């Protein structure tokens, strides 16, 4: 896939050190694919791809090598570690974790909604990605989505929403 490339490296060797900063560099209402290459590491951030930034391809270094981790809970629409709103989004070889309930720590973090990923746009695809949480792990809000060789880990309503998705 030919595309403009932005590199993310937590040690400072890329164009940005955070995934969100790379997404912020994508022009609004972009009509060409932008590849965001994400180096190995644990990225402790909440990521939002807003509705006006379609055609983004996120490429991690591996499901067990590139992780996005956030610790939020209660509000379903604001607790997600990864929020994707626009159409035409692809993610490959990375894991999204909401660490609030994972692992469950008894009374220190009582069971609550803690979304790992919220996918709302049409024509989104995920290849070799991980989604980890306990309650409401993957919110497949709406649209058509494709998940290939993905791991979705949770305990209560771990996949929910009104999206039309294929899981292979």
TrEMBL record:
Q: Which GO terms describe its molecular function?
A: pectinesterase activity
Could you tell me the superkingdom of the organism this chain comes from? Eukaryota
Which Gene3D superfamilies does this chain map to? Single-stranded right-handed beta-helix, Pectin lyase-like
Which pathway does the protein contribute to? Glycan metabolism; pectin degradation; 2-dehydro-3-deoxy-D-gluconate from pectin: step 1/5
Location relative to the cell: Secreted, Cell wall
Where in the numbering of this chain does the Pectinesterase catalytic domain appear?
A: 7-168
Q: Which Pfam families match?
A: Pectinesterase
Q: What class of enzyme is it?
A: hydrolase
* Enzyme Commission number, as recorded: 3.1.1.11
Q: Which UniProt keywords apply?
A: Aspartyl esterase, Cell wall, Cell wall biogenesis/degradation, Hydrolase, Secreted
Q: Where is it predominantly found? A: secreted
Its UniProt entry gives the catalysed reaction(s) as: [(1->4)-alpha-D-galacturonosyl methyl ester](n) + n H2O = [(1->4)-alpha-D-galacturonosyl](n) + n methanol + n H(+)
Biological processes, Gene Ontology terms? cell wall modification; pectin catabolic process
Q: Which family does it belong to?
A: Belongs to the pectinesterase family.
Q: In UniProt terms, what function does this protein have? A: Acts in the modification of cell walls via demethylesterification of cell wall pectin.
Q: What is this protein called?
A: Pectinesterase
